[in-house]
Amino acid sequence: MTKLRELYKCDVCGNVVEITHEGAPALVCCGEDMKKLIPKTEDTGGEKHLPVLEETDNGILVKVGDIAHPMEDEHFIKFIEVLTGDKVIRAELKPGNNPEAEFKIDKSEVKAVREYCTIHGLWENK
After folding, report:
1. 49 known ligand binder
2. 46-125: CATH homologous superfamily?
3. Is 21 annotated as a binding residue?
4. Contact residues for 113 (Cβ-Cβ < 8 A; gap 6+)
């Protein structure tokens, strides 16, 4: 049973979807069940993926890793999301962008931040 805000990926075509209406028993794409993405919460390798939140004068800045993540054509951060009690705020990124995004929201409202790397998947920091 799908739940609100879960992310799923198709292993055939690479589609990633976020649940906005829960309840489906499964998601299917390209004739196969999509895989639920489980966010990683600890950096263990050389590359850093964990989103880092900093307070700014205008809200918050979310950077991917304490060392800037690569933003190459085949390996980049696709999006950064801020989750609150009742909102999902997303910044979509492209190769060549900085792996960060600023959001006009008070830090006290933030429940979690997460990002999606095209190679290493979903990462979350609460």
Report:
1. yes
2. SOR catalytic domain (2.60.40.730)
3. no
4. 51, 53, 62, 80, 81, 82, 83, 124, 125
